[in-house]
Amino acid sequence: MPKFFYQAYTKSKEKKEGVIEAENKMQALERLDRLSLFPVGIKLSDGIDNEEVVRIRGRVKFSDIVTFSRQISNLLDSGLTILAALMLVLKQTLKPSLKSVIEEIIEDLKEGKTFSYSLSRHPNIFSGLYVSLIKSGETGGFLEDTMKRIADFMESEEELRAKVRSAMIYPILIAIVGIITIFVLLSFVVPKLVLVFEDFGQTLPLPTQVLVSLSYLLSRYWWLVVLFITLIIFIINRISKTQEGRIFIDRFKLKIPVLGTIVLKRQIERFCRILATLLGNGVTILPSLEVVRDIMENNILKREIEKMRLEIRDGSSLTKAMSKSRHFPVSVINIISVGEESGSLEKVLQKISANYEREIDRDLRDFTSLLEPLMILVMGLIVAFIVTAMLLPIFQINFMAR
């Protein structure tokens, strides 16, 4: 049945947006009227891709989904049904973008559709992992435990993301301040001093000549610098939209000294955590690996996981399939082998994930503790060169005056 994206107002003049199923536009309008909604715009959603719907409705942040998941988990734990829990969360939700999504889910449930199906209609908000876990929870009759697992998993993900963001804030701030300082010196301070030096008619020292040339280029042709940076960003953006380009970028990320190790550890931690969550929720290994493959951020690891999935489909064990990978350490494969043999694969994967999370946290602290003084040193050397180049002609004039 066709779907229509609508924008409408309630009787209390509250704006609402969402998707409604109907045979045609007239039937969609009739359904909106039965819901006591006054439409101001309606469009066949087949003509709107998911990204456009998100732009129209407004983005739902990852942290919003974390809060939503924890609220549903707590309400189900208190004995409420999923429909009652959603209606209660709807009243507490203030963000219009998430409110609109919850309203659509509630409408789907009232029409007899499953919770997992309702979530799958919002792929830009609820990932394949999220939907797969909910589906397995519904099938097995343990949706309450599933929501708790999802909430715990997403909170761990959010905590790790927060650690990465906080670790990079100070180095980025130092870089921005340093670049602005250098730009101001070269664009405004140096040109004024050059006018003073020209009045004396002296030959400028080599460092000063280099500085003056850089200042001249930056003050006169700054637009070329902006154009060059814009062009680089445009090229990277275009490359990242192709499969080959994404693979090239992801391979480059893994080869960056120090950072590449952190990126790889993050991917392994994510692989183990997601796989453990799926297996613990009753999903078998093949569909679990399929979900993990789609969730992984690095395309090189995605390819290797797909090869592992095909190997297992043909009768191989997870350990043997992983042993052919170039990026999974032998130590991880050996631990997983023990888990497979003892029948405790889920617990083993959780332990590996926890260990890698601690390692990532430690590596980030070590990296930033080295990066911060290094950036200060580099910026200090650049500023010192500028100051020295500006002072050398003054020293030269004083020496000649004596």
Textual characterization of the structure:
The protein is mainly alpha-helical and 402 residues long. The protein folds into three domains: 3-48; 64-153, Receptor-associated Protein; 155-267 and 318-402, no CATH class. It has 17 helices and three strands. It has a three-stranded antiparallel beta sheet with strand order 2-1-3. A hairpin with a 5-residue loop joins strand 1 (3-9) and strand 2. Helix 3 packs across helix 4 (82-92) and helix 10 packs across helix 11 (243-255). The longest helix has 58 residues, at 143-200. It is extended. Residues 47-56 have low confidence and may be disordered.
Pick out its properties.
mainly alpha; Receptor-associated Protein; 3 domains; 77% helix
* Principal-axes shape call: extended
What is the total tally of β strands?
Answer: 3
Structural class: mainly alpha
Summarize the amount of helix as a percent range: over 70%
Rg of Cα set: 29 Å
Query: How far is it from the N-terminal to the C-terminal residue, by CA?
Result: 93 Å
* Overall pLDDT score: 82
Task: Record the strand order, biggest sheet.
Answer: 2-1-3
Whole-number total of structural domains = 3
Major sheet attributes: 3 strands, antiparallel
Unreliable stretches, pLDDT < 50, 5 or more residues?
47-56
Number of helices, counting only DSSP H or I runs of 4 residues or more:
17
